[in-house]
Amino acid sequence: MINILKLLFLVSSFFLFACEKEQAPVEKKEIIRPVKVQKIQLSGSESSLNQFSGKARHIRESLLSFRVSGVLTELKYKVGQQVNVRSLGAALDQRDFKTNVRGLINQLQSAQAQLAQMRKGARPEDLRIIESKLKSAQAAKRSTEAAVSGALTARETARSDFQRITQLYAKRAASKSQLDRSKVAMAQQETLHKQSLTQLEQAGQNITTAEKELEKAKAGAREEDILAQEANTRSLNEKVIQAKASLADTQLLIPFSGIISRKNVSNFEQITAGQPIYNLIDISKIEVQISLPETLISYIAKGQPVKINFLNFPSRQYEGRINKIGVTADQQTLTYPVFIEVENRDNKILPGMTAQVNLQTSPTETSYPSIPLHAVIQNKVTQAKYVWLYSPDSGTVTKQVVQIGSFQNDRVEIIEGLNNGDLLIVAGVHKIREGMKVRLLKQ
């Protein structure tokens, strides 16, 4: 009986062990997915000193020329010579200009005197002069009328002589020379008669002019005549002002202090208005141009101080400030132009000199990190946006809610939720979950 009980115990133990073995869970192998990360760099997180090569150039240049044409009589400066503002650089021959000014001034004074007389009216002595002129014209007409009468008688006599000699010549009672002389005499008398008629007509016109002048003098100048004379006086005054300005323009004055970089003409040449005489540059301040890549252009600001060294002066360091920042990249180098203004009080720095620019590039306080758009995931229920961050200590990932800003192509700006130095997962984001272990791909 005891043996039977032992046998049943062994059999039941065997089946119980077998069942427990079958129900033991099978341990699964953990999958570690590969991911790619991007290190977050927040604004103001790093500051570095970069060196760039550039060339010095002048900031201001002017082509100096005359506003009038003429013969160049004075050319004072040479290339490389330093000049001061308002100094005389060149001059043209002034003789014709001075003559023109004097002539116009005389015309203006005459017009002003005539206008004053028109406003005042004719004086008694002026009336007597005009009356005397009229009497002279009348006397001249009477004399001319007598001359016309005498010329008419002479013409008729010459015609009669010619007819008489023509008849005699036909009867062979006069010679051919007598006929020719009478013909010439008749033609001369015809001419003298016509001339006397012309003189008589002119004498009549002189009387008419004198009568009108006397009538006008007695009546005084009309209002419209005074207005016309006033307009003529103003016009002459403007011409005088313009002529004086042209005379002044025969002298070429230096517009600002600087250095003559080029002389384009020689003395005693005929110069036309607008023809370049000098090239003048101002190097009291110079500009150094450098080129920055797009990765650094947003880290500088206008007015930022800059340290500059020139190869010609290795022991001296100049201070400058960023004056202009280009907004268009060069098509070939894909860099942006940056211009730095440097004081050059001793004029030692010349255009074309090579400069070494030491530029501090720091992110601006208002910039935010930009990450790939596909690294951001949106919760379908709450509509919240989040990203995956990698923890190098545990090798796992954690979910981080973020607030997005502006978009640019396939990237998005993160304005809240990321810290400096965070390792953002940018590849494999859709195959991971909270706390999952991952391995980093080689960058």
TrEMBL record:
Cleavable signal peptide: 1-18
Residues of the CusB-like beta-barrel domain: 288-361
Keywords: Coiled coil, Signal
Coiled-coil regions listed in the entry: 101-147
Keyword Coiled coil: yes
GO-annotated cellular components: efflux pump complex
Multidrug resistance protein MdtA-like C-terminal permuted SH3 domain boundaries: 371-430
One Pfam match: Beta-barrel_RND_2
MF GO annotations: efflux transmembrane transporter activity
SUPFAM superfamilies on file: HlyD-like secretion proteins
Top-rank lineage group of the source organism: Bacteria
Matching InterPro entries: Beta-barrel_RND_2, MdtA-like_C, RND_pump_MFP
PANTHER family tied to this protein: EFFLUX RND TRANSPORTER PERIPLASMIC ADAPTOR SUBUNIT, MULTIDRUG RESISTANCE PROTEIN MDTA
Protein family according to the UniProt entry: Belongs to the membrane fusion protein (MFP) (TC 8.A.1) family.
Protein name: Uncharacterized protein
Organism of this sequence: SAR324 cluster bacterium
Lineage of the species this protein comes from: Bacteria, Deltaproteobacteria, SAR324 cluster
